[in-house]
Amino acid sequence: MTSLDDAIGRIDLLDAARAIDHWKRYGLDLTPLLGAPSSLDGVPTRALIAQDHGLEKALDQRIIPQIGDLLEHGTPVHLELPITNRDRTVGTLTGYEITKRFGARGLEPNTLAVTFTGSAGQSFGAFVPRGVTLTLLGDANDYVGKGLSGGRLIVRPDVNAPFSAEDQIIAGNVILYGATDGELFLRGKVGERFCVRNSGATAVVEGIGDHGCEYMTGGRVVVLGSTGRNFGAGMSGGIAFVYNKDGSFDANVNPEMVDLEPLDDEDTEWLSSLLARYVVDTESPVAQEILSQGSEMASHFVKVMPRDYRRILEATRAAERDGRSIDEAVMEVSHG
After folding, report:
1. How many CB atoms are located within 10 Å of the residue 232 CB?
2. Helices of type H across the chain
3. Number of other CB atoms surrounding residue 329 within 10 Å
4. Residue 71 reports pLDDT greater than 90
5. How far is C-alpha 99 from the chain's CA centre?
6. How far apart, in Å, are the Cα atoms of 174 and each of 88, 126, 177, 288, 335?
7. Which overall architecture, per CATH, does domain 67-306 show?
8. Residue 34 pLDDT > 80, yes or no?
9. Is residue 206 within 8 Å of residue 285, measured between CB atoms?
10. Which one of 151, 191, 276, 280 has the largest count of C-beta atoms within 10 Å of its C-beta?
11. How confident is the model at residue 92 (pLDDT cuts 50, 70, 90)?
């Protein structure tokens, strides 16, 4: 054989004796598991036809031709485009071109700013790098900001929308899945598994469904409204700040790996600054009302802190204060 294609279908070359040498297999006939697939006329046993992903029809193909100066010289570009729910992974191909040209460092903030109007398909803003800001006036499907890599995403209702954003779903499920860096502002509520496996992005939202911050390892999340059940399950890193004026949040937390704490002065200063920028980008009356509370604002929030993450932060600060190696301090804490 000279290739994997030559090996496909060669059941006669498989030896399962060692794999099934266990007392539990006695009395079982496992022969059918190694049976050759029955051949069908005209149906090949291996891939012969190249897949067509329709990339030439992607909305990014309307963006890329307009950013030639940006790719060549880093010249800022601002665009406005309509979008529909057939437009998936918008921004990803554009982000690829930028990363190919400028590398992991990306660009200065807002070098490329694109405003879309309409309803975005799945994975809006997936893997978008630094320097790219995508604003969506409308709503979005699942996986907004999947793998976000330093870019900024803003999702808010159209200015002529006849409803209160804080009472409506603005985007779907599994938002910021696996994000490593960047920022996401959502004016409105979203679905389940918000920020699952987020490892570095910052997000603000006005309400979420079940399993928020599941398996999160880094980044910061601010929730200005209600949450579903099982918040923080498997959350080993990062910090969440949840508006809890009515005290109902405690019952929705999975306490296995996280503690609930009040905000300190540093937290309050950071949160106030973030919400001020959130108001500028989204015009959210919810955030405006919260900021208007002044010194009382912090008492209405609860801080969700993973226990192991707190130990790492404390060890890092102690090492910096004492002039010791941060890496060694983290390793000591990690190994108990």
Report:
1. 29
2. 4-7, 60-63, 68-73, 92-102, 265-282, 285-291, 307-322, 326-334
3. 19
4. yes
5. 19
6. 15, 12, 6, 27, 32
7. 3 Solenoid (2.160)
8. no
9. no
10. 151
11. very high
